[in-house]
Structures are given as C-alpha cells and as structure tokens.
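Quarterly update from the structural biology core.
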Amino acid sequence: MTKQPFGKTAAGETVDLYTLANSSGVEVSIATYGGTVTSLKTQDRAGRIADVVLGFNDLDGYVKATFYAGALVGRYANRIAKGRFALNGVEYTLAVNNGANSLHGGLKGFDKAVWAARELPGGDPALELTYVSQDGEEGYPGKLTVTVVYTLTRFNELRIDYAAETSKDTVLNLTNHSYFNLAGEGNADAMDHVLRVNADRFTPVDAGLIPTSELRPVEGTPFDFRSPMAIGARIGQADEQLERGCGYDHNFVVNGKMGTLRDAARAVDPKSGRVLEVLTTEPGIQLYAANFLDGTAIGKSGKPYQRRSAFCLETQRFPDSPNHPDFPTSVLRAGQKFASTTVFQFSAA
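Predicted structure, tokenized:
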C-alpha cells in the first residue's frame, strides 16, 4: 500500500490517496474524500491492464462531479420519497435533492465527507476508513459512527466491509457507487457487456423512481437477467419501467438469505474478456445503466463520459425502505451493530 497527497477541500481539509496492489497486477486507488474508488486496474484475457472504473485525475473533478463516481454513499443510499420517513412515531424531514425526493444522503452525503484513514496490519492490503455523522446531519437522527474496510485480496477481489453504530435509532443504507466499464474507462459504450443478475424479482417504481412496494417477477420482462444478456439488448424496449428510469435504474431482489454472502451478479466484457462478479450480504442490488451521463464530464483519459458508457451494481437495502414496512428493514437501533459485506471479484475469460 502506498499513500500520496490528493489535494485539499475548500474548507482546507487534507485529502490523501491510498493505492493497494496485489501480486497479480490488480491495483485499486482510494481517496479519503468520499472514500472514493478513483482507479481500479485489472487484466484482460491477454494480460493487458486497464482502469475499469470512471473517475478523475484530481480532487477537483470529484468535488465538481454530480454522479457519485466511485464514492461511498450514505447515510441512506438511493431514494427516500419526499425526503420524509417516520421512526418510533417521529417524522423526520431530510434534504430534498432529486426532484421531490432525497437521494444518496442529501445535499452533503458521505460522498462529500473526508474520512479518517489507517492501514490495517496483516496479509492482504486493507484500508480502514472512518466517518462520524453527527446527530441531525442532513436530517437523520443519531450520532452514527461508520467504518468501511477496503481489502484487496490475493484472489483479485476488492472486498468492502461496512460497520456502523448509532447513539439513537436511525435508518441506514450504505453502498459503493463505482461506475464500471470492463473494456476500460473512456470507452464510449458499455451496453454490450453481458450481465447476469441472481434475482427472480425486482422492485418496480412510480414516475418519481420510488418503489411501489410490489416485488414483481422478472420473468417475461426486460428485467430478466437470470440468464446472461447484453445490458443494452432490451434497454430501448417499450416498457413503462424502462421509460420511467430512462433505462435501467432499478433495484433487484437478490436470491438467497439476506446476511449471507452470496452471488448477486456477473458481468463480462466480450471484447476484453474481463469478468466482474459481485457477491453481497445485502438484500438488493441496483442496476444503473448511467442513463444520465451526458458527455459534460471529462474523465481520466481525457474522454467525455457519455450516456451509458458504464454501469453500476450497487448493493443495498431497498430504496425508500423506511416507508415500506414489508421491505427488509433499514433501521439500525441504538446499541446494535450494523455489518455488511460486498465483494467485487475480477478475472478474465
């Protein structure tokens, strides 16, 4: 593991960049600003290395960007309807930043925080990041202490272990918002990537992209990725859900028991042969096809990030869970410990 300066925020906070590498040539860089994965380099079937996540060469790019590239997202990833939820009979009002809704923690979510970092001793390189979210921050109750450990394993896995404790009952949904293009960032299109999602159901949304509470079978819909399918094969079909999301921007219900680390998704770039497999203990995974990138952001390689030039696989509790009592709970009680694990495993075929 190496460490280097990555700039200072407008408030004068020092931001560092840590780079973890293994013997197989896999390398990941993580900035303390937002706990952001700024670079992830891995081999294709011919042994060629490419950076497979979207991002920027300097801190300023991340400060100005509006699409959460590579960041840790919280206190509540995804959307909460109308920026409101009730807990223990009390209604809480959040910052609204996505139409009528609160998205990804509000106006100043965890993606904009500078996290405290320390290198963990042991075998595989591991970086521990800590952030303390004060009681009332962005409208959420409880002083929340969050710890995230990034580990780059000898098996070419980027393992992310999330942990949290709160002083008051609160709601919590943590994820990493990396944008992947396994052909290499800066490639214009990722819709030829072949995707499999281990989900029999998904959560359809209303016009504001808020779940309706239904768990709808994927069978017979463009959301059936149980067998491998190119992401873009059906993205333009006449389908109400695709029209509402401007493409895929939906939560899938991962098969298997929440809390157990299990297969969630597998993506393959047919040209390079790079493979990404996602395992998680979370109940859901959001497929987002970068529908709202518009070419205005210029990435690390000097190329504009165009619409659908990447995809996200965000492991999570379901969107708007605090307002859907039948969804898996997102409530963290005072005295409880939150724990969650997601693994991104890289290979070539």
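The two ends are 28 Å apart (CA to CA).
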